[in-house]
Design brief:
The complex is a heterodimer. By secondary structure, chain A is of the alpha/beta class. Chain A has a single domain, classed as TIM Barrel, CATH 3.20.20.240. Chain A contains 22 helices and ten strands. Chain B has a single domain, classed as Rossmann fold (3-Layer(aba) Sandwich), CATH 3.40.50.280. In chain B, 47% of the residues lie in helices and 17% in strands. Chain B contains five helices and five strands, in the order E-H-E-H-E-H-E-H-E-H. Classes of the chains: A alpha/beta, B alpha/beta. At the A-B interface, helix 5 and helix 18 of A face helix 1 and helix 3 of B.
Chain lengths: 557, 139
């Protein structure tokens, strides 16, 4: 990046400065200067740290390979990121009301949070659902619930993200069936399914079947969408949960990319054309507290992905090389103490996501360490994004931190660390083998434990936790409670649906699904027939459990 | 040399968030406890069976899904039915203050919320188990 003469002169100058600075180094504000991930950071970065970078090959221009500076030519000058607050709670009716509220207040996309029974493929009246119905998100049992959730919302006009993994194809089938009822063509539907089962085994732990049949469900879904739902983002390959479980930034990046490459390889093996499905893969990252480390992570992510897609997987279309991503601010960085401080934490995190070129963003609500967000808290979180977009001026120019000695050096370091992990995973026999051996799970648990010890030893200060503590405080923000009646109502509703439908049709479509699952047919297509006649999510998953088996994780500690 | 204190750590319900319980497991192990971790998705019956079979001094339960008002009392009730309520029952998770008060009234010994340290948790278990043991010796 620089002339040799200039660097030589700079090197002498730096040596002199270093000697002078030594006089002042006895005084330190912290014992160690480390990132959130525990990486040591240099005192100063200079042109020396980025002298090895070739601007054109390594940084380049936005909208051009290797996309370090962003996936679009004009970035936020052309279009802002999608402001997409993840929400869902209680009954489908309550969730529908929350969506109308968010859309009325300027939110530009929907994002559905499901409750734990839905995520695990159990109906609300299943014994294992006891106490969990509607708690972490909205309860869905049958098509009737999805009809209510999207009542009054034209599916042809909104983009919808659904955080669902093990039973993702069931929920997509229900969404498609609602579109049919609204008279909206599948080709008009826009949205994203999380549908990333690998990170479930690694971090989030909401699974049903073992990895191999789960990946088959995903490749079936990718094939169906290529043919019938061409605008739908089929997998949101997620680092978010890996980070929340305690990983470092480099682990989040590497494990997520490794998962992504595993899906890509399985679809290629299935005979699909990489340029047909790759443009509809997207990513989902965490925005933690370490501002520059996060920005480096997003920039490195785009670069690694583009290179692999082009060079290793031989994708020919530029759209296949683009790593597009959603970001959510770090829930694990929030504190239950002095919860209003979380507004500031979230704002800084959201800012890093925008500086890192995110395509969509969820900003957490201040009360998320206490309960599901209240209406007031979620509105402040949405307003935080609007302030970043319209008041701070950072959307005026593209990738404003490019060329920073620190940020470019850190982007390179992040890339090197992630590549080292990718190599390690390959040496250990690939993602599935690493899951089976508990490699990811242990790496993450060790990082989480180290982080907790740093806090307890005060090597890391968290405001309100180990410094600036208020003692016994009274929380005076509103807290949302899910009424116990929700579970009763939802159980009664699913029983009524089951009683009122055409039993023969339900049996026939479920039997057909089992036949398809045992053979090579497309499972999503068969599920669409099941949901149309109001077979429940639990029934569909139960039909497949004996065919595919159920996953049990050994208790790694 | 007294025997190591035996602690069963458990994740009930459908909740898969195991970061907290794994940190607690590592901290108890480093502090010299015998730690048994159940893994995920345990029913209250499975947890109480394991506690009795493993002859533990304390059971620590982590719930972040909001199902605490159902699951903690179910575990407590089963411990009592199996005449095992000498076992200290503690837990952690996202649990509002008023729910903590209600659960402690129902005999859950102690609940920790976000921001609690591993040291606090360890100190609590040491003291609570110590007290119970002393009480049993007198009996």
């Amino acid at each position: 990046m620089f002339e040799k003469g200039f660097l030589d002169k700079l090197s002498d100058r730096k040596t002199r400065w270093d000697a002078d600075a030594e006089k002042y180094r006895a005084q330190k504000t912290r014992p160690r200067f480390i990132t959130v991930s525990g990486e040591e950071i240099n005192e100063l970065y200079t042109p020396q740290d980025i002298s090895g970078i070739d601007y054109d090959a390594g940084i380049g221009f936005p909208g051009e390979y290797p996309y370090t500076r962003g996936v679009h030519h004009t970035m936020y000058r052309g279009r802002l990121w999608t402001m997409r607050q993840f929400s869902g709670m209680g009954t489908p009716k309550q969730t529908n009301a929350r969506y109308h509220y968010l859309l009325k207040n300027g939110q530009t996309g929907l994002s559905v949070a499901f409750d734990l029974p839905t995520l695990m493929g159990y109906d609300s009246d299943h014994a294992r659902s006891l106490g969990e119905v509607g708690k972490c998100g909205v309860a869905v049992d049958s098509l009737a619930d999805i009809e209510i959730i999207f009542d009054g919302i034209n599916l042809g006009e909104v983009s919808t993200s659904m955080t669902i993994n093990a039973p993702a194809s069931v929920l997509l089938a229900m969404y498609l069936a609602v579109a049919e009822k609204q008279g909206v063509s599948f080709t008009k539907l826009r949205g994203t399914l999380q549908n990333d089962i690998l990170k479930e085994y690694i971090a989030q732990k909401e699974w049903i079947y073992p990895p191999e049949p789960s990946i088959r469900l995903i490749t079936d879904l990718m094939a169906f969408c290529t043919d019938h739902v061409p605008q739908w983002n089929t997998i949101s390959i997620s680092g978010y949960h890996i980070r929340e479980a305690g990983s470092t930034a480099a682990q989040e990046l590497a494990f997520t990319l490794a998962d992504g490459f595993t899906y890509i390889e399985s679809a290629i093996k299935d005979g699909q054309d990489v340029d047909q499905f790759a443009p509809r893969l997207s990513f989902f990252f965490n925005a933690h507290q370490d501002f520059f480390e996060e920005i480096a992570k997003y920039r490195a992510a785009r670069r690694i992905f583009a290179r692999r897609m082009k060079e290793k997987y031989k994708a020919k279309q530029e759209r296949s090389w683009l790593l597009r991503f959603h970001t959510q601010t770090a829930g694990c960085s929030l504190t239950a103490q002095q919860p209003e401080n979380n507004i500031m934490r979230t704002a800084f995190e959201g800012l890093s996501a925008v500086m890192g070129g995110t395509q969509s963003l969820h900003t957490n609500s201040m009360d998320e360490t206490l309960a599901l967000p209240s209406e007031k808290a979620v509105l402040i979180a949405l307003r935080t994004q609007q302030i970043i977009a319209h008041e701070t001026g950072i959307t005026n120019t593209i990738d404003p931190l490019a060329g920073s000695y620190f940020v470019e050096a850190m982007t390179d370091k992040m890339e090197a660390d992630a590549e080292a992990y990718l190599q390690e995973i390959e040496d250990r026999g690939g993602v599935l083998k690493c899951i089976e051996d508990g490699y990811f799970q242990r790496e993450i648990a060790n990082a989480a434990y180290r982080y907790q010890k740093e806090i307890e030893k005060k090597e890391r200060i968290i405001v309100g936790i180990n410094e600036y503590v208020m003692g016994k405080e009274k929380i005076d923000i509103p807290i949302l409670k899910i009424d116990e009646q929700v579970e009763k109502d939802q159980c009664a509703f699913v029983k009524k649906i089951r009683a009122d439908r055409d039993h023969d049709k339900v049996k026939r479509t479920l039997d057909e699904l089992v036949t398809v699952a045992k053979g090579n047919g497309n499972t999503l297509k068969a599920m669409l027939d099941c949901v149309r006649v109001y077979a429940t999510e639990g029934e569909i998953c139960d039909a497949l459990r004996p065919v595919f088996g159920e996953y049990v994780e050994p208790p790694f500690i | 040399m007294p025997d190591k204190i035996r602690v069963l750590l458990a994740k009930p319900g459908l909740d898969g968030h195991d970061r907290g319980i794994k940190v607690i497991a590592a901290a108890f192990r480093d502090a010299g406890f015998e730690v048994i971790y159940t893994g995920l998705r345990q029913t209250p019956e499975m947890i109480v069976n394991a506690a009795i079979q493993e002859d533990v001094d304390a059971v620590g339960v982590s719930i972040l899904s909001g199902a605490h008002m159902t699951l903690f009392p179910a575990i407590k009730k089963l411990l009592a039915e199996r005449k095992a309520d000498n076992i200290v029952l503690f837990g952690g998770g996202i649990i509002p203050d008023e729910d903590i008060a209600a659960l402690e009234k129902q005999g859950i010994d102690r609940l920790f919320t976000p921001g609690a340290t591993t040291d606090e948790t360890i100190a609590f278990v040491l003291e609570a188990v110590g007290k119970r043991k002393k009480h049993e010796d007198i009996m």
